[in-house]
Amino acid sequence: MFSYCADPDTLGTFRWFSCYLTNGVHMSFYMSFLKVLALLAVTAPVALGFGFAGAMAARARFAPISWLGKGYIAIVRGVPDIAFFLFFVIALDQAFEWTRHKVLCPEWTDPIRQGNDFLVCSAAKLPLGTSPEWVHETYGFSLAVITFAIVFGAFAANVLFGAMRAVPHAQLETAEAYGMSHRQTFWRILVPQMWVFALPGLSNLWMVLIKATPLLFLLGVEDIVYWARELGGTKTSKFTSYPHGDWRMWYFLFLLVFYLAFTRVSEIFLERIMTKLTYGQATSGGEAQRKGAPA
Amino acid sequence: MSCFQTIQDYGLRSIGYGERLLPKSDFTLCEQFTLIGSGMIWNIYFGVLALLFGFFFATALAVAKSSSSRLFRKPAEWFIFLFRGSPLFIQFFFAYFLFLNLKGVHPFFGPFTAAWLGALITLFLNTSAYTAEIFYGALRSIPKGDTEAADAYGMSGWPRFKRIIWPTMLRLAWPAYTNEAIFLFHATTLVYFSGFPAWRQKGDALYYASYFADKTFNPFVPYPILAFYFIIVTLVIVGVFGLINKRLNSHLPSARRAKLRIRPNLIR
């Protein structure tokens, strides 16, 4: 990065670190933080969408759909989430390849599962064997996003389901008295009012989602955990111009501090939104604000 | 090979008894059930011990956090913030590498780099922080009348805590604490995926489940088996904690008893 970095062996401690922390692999390390942020930015809305669909299904009047929604919530919440992460990455991949295989190679007669192998025709492979590196990485990343969205969608569905039931029943009865149909009541009365009740649960979920991002590592994405392990490991002068001992502890300490700061900032931010939303509401929170305000 | 033979060979594989080599090919359903079940020994070991030790430490932390003295309050607040504000996964990694470095300083820290001790300590500290926050919340919502009654009886200090505050705190915290317990058992699956090595392939349930999934490239058998085991564990926890909940609330008229509301599973 800097001009004096040509021969790191001769540098003093401070300059050595300034070179070490700005070399190529460290840039990849810093980029992986963006990956985490991108994951959060994409997953949060998608999971909210899954959650909304799940909650809608769970309170459907047609029993099988309601079972489907409730089953989705119950199963994902009852099993260790990390098991789901490991499961979905393979399962989704195989589901995509299987579908493509059926569509693209109908003449193929061999069974797909041969003993311990999962064989599809080469045209159905995802991503295609010939595609460049970035396609592989993007594919892995989008599998991770879908997996996160499925798991967190179930949590969000549970929160929204509870919020929908928290809306005062009199409101819905009034809507019925005005002659609104079931659908109109849902979209015009229930949905606009439920967000205040959902916010505490959703902000809790956001904190949990932040703390779940290191699990990206288990899904095979080169995320911050991957780089921290790579960069921290002992390096000899044979392979790098910046030899050092086992520094993984310090790298993970840095990640720890990063997450602490991130959750703290989110906490403050969500607190502000909550204060805004409760302003003027007929809840105990709104009441407290009214009393605290100068007359 | 009969299923009974398989159970004999692999039933205690996760703690090092029985057949040394894991099955390599042609996995039967029985083998998968047995090995994953054998791995559950570790999940239960981590969960039970961390919960047991964490319970007492959490009580101390909660009392410290609600203390009026800064000397007690600040360290407890920081401890709870540190462990609740960062991912358990990163905590495991950090603890493992910390112990690895300490091992270089003094051989006394050798056992700490093994999962049975190092991961247990991490889990213990982590669950203490989460439980302490629950207990702290309960301490703050103890009915004022209860403490006033204790004052009226001339109780103070230790007897007041032991006979009035602590039981009421537990009673109020119990539903949330049940969730924390379920949640902790789920978190034990992270141990062998976060630095701590599975020495001689002695791992927990998820370790074996992912072993089978990797070998057969078929996730649709081992993971449902794992889910089956965890649902059983969850039901057992709910049952046991429900009994304790009943006892804690036994003096109350039945309408005022706190119902257990099970809302498990959040990632930490």
Shape summary of chain A: flat
Largest sheet of chain A: 2 strands, antiparallel
> Which CATH architecture of chain A would you pick?
Orthogonal Bundle
Helix and strand run of chain A: HHHHEEHHHHHH
Fourth CATH level, the homologous superfamily of chain B? MetI-like
Per DSSP E runs of 2 or more residues, the count of β-strands of chain A stands at 2
Oligomer: heterodimer
Instruction: Compute the number of structural domains of chain A.
Output: 1
Count all strands of chain B and give the number.
0
Low-confidence stretches of chain A: none
Domain ABC transmembrane type-1 (chain A): 33-270
Main location (chain A): membrane
Keywords (chain A): Membrane, Transmembrane, Transmembrane helix, Transport
Membrane topology (chain A): Multi-pass membrane protein
Please give a structural write-up.
Chain A: Belongs to the binding-protein-dependent transport system permease family. Chain A: It holds the Pfam family BPD_transp_1. The complex is a heterodimer of chains A (295) and B (268). The N and C termini of chain A lie far apart (59 Å). The mean pLDDT of chain A is 80. Chain A has helices at 13-20, 24-58, 63-78, 81-104, 133-166, 169-177, 182-212, 224-232, 248-278, 284-292, and strands spanning 113-114, 117-118. Helices cover 70% and strands 1% of the residues of chain A. Chain A has a two-stranded antiparallel ribbon with strand order 1-2. With 295 residues, chain A is an all-alpha fold. Chain A is built from 10 helices and 2 strands; from the N terminus they run ααααββαααααα. Chain B has 268 residues and is mainly α. In chain B, 69% of the residues lie in helices and 0% in strands. Chain B has 9 helices and no strands. The radius of gyration of chain B is 22 Å and the shape is globular. Chains A and B meet through helix 3, helix 4, strand 2, helix 7 and helix 8 of A and helix 3, helix 4, helix 8 and helix 9 of B.
